[in-house]
Every structure is written in structure tokens, then in C-alpha cells.
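pipeline stage [seq->struct] | target=Molybdopterin-guanine dinucleotide biosynthesis protein A, putative | organism=Deinococcus gobiensis | residues=153
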Amino acid sequence: MAPPGRYVLPGWLGVPDTRPGEGPLAGLEAALAEVAARRGAGWVALCGVDQPALTPAYWAALWAARAVPGTLAVQALDPQGRAQPLAALYHTALRLRLTAMLDGGERRLRLAAPPEATATVAGLPGGVFSNVNRPEDLAALERQLGMGRPGEG
């Protein structure tokens, strides 16, 4: 979710915020509505732009866990056992719940899906949860992943 024209990538669908400034729960509501309108029932992968270490294996692990009957959300557990709602899968069936939450003033993403409808995935490498907000965060992640920038020894 971003202002129109920002983060434009070929082959990606940009979905504008329908509640600008209301945070990730509102962004998820807009994404679920867009997917439901275009494709009907389905899943949305949600992540922050500051989470560059999420890998195809990460998403594959979450995707496999969605098959449990009654599951409406899939969240990874970090190495400390905390659910990660900002790098998760959500089903379009949650849209009306999110709309009601937002209309009632709720903004906490961790409440998007009821616990009994949320599957969790443990055992993923801790590095995938890296949050990169500053150049030094990116440098630390690159060191952790054994990557160097061009010209660095």
C-alpha cells in the first residue's frame, strides 16, 4: 500500500490506500478488498517494505500452513516465539472483520484474524525477520547474509 505511483514494479498491482495514514491494518483491508473484487476468495501476502530478507522459502512455508481447515491467516513465529503479523498471509474472508475493526477505531494488525483461525509456522531462520529502516540496518543485514556492496573488501 502506497500513494499512487510509488513503488511501481512491472507485473505488480498497485493498490491505493483507502484509509491513508491509518496503518497496516487499513492497508490489509484495501488489499483484501482489491483481491476479492478481482479474483473472488483468495489469499494476500502482506509484508512491510522494510523487510527485504523474506525469502521464497519463507513464503512457501506459510503457504503450506494455510491448508489447515478453518485457517484465515498464517503468521511466522520469530526465534522468540512471537507471531509476525506484518509478514503473513491473510484470506479475503477477513475483509468484513477488518472493516468493522477499523470503523470501530481499532488499528492493531495483530488482531486482524481470530487466534483460532490463525496458523503459525515456527523454525524459520531468524535472519528473515530483519527490519531495515536505516543504511546501517542494511549494512548489518548484508554482513549477516555474507553479502558485500560493490567496492567493499
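stage status: PASS
auto-comment: The domain at 24-144 is CATH 3.90.550.10 (Spore Coat Polysaccharide Biosynthesis Protein SpsA; Chain A). Residues 46 and 88 are 5 Å apart (CA to CA).
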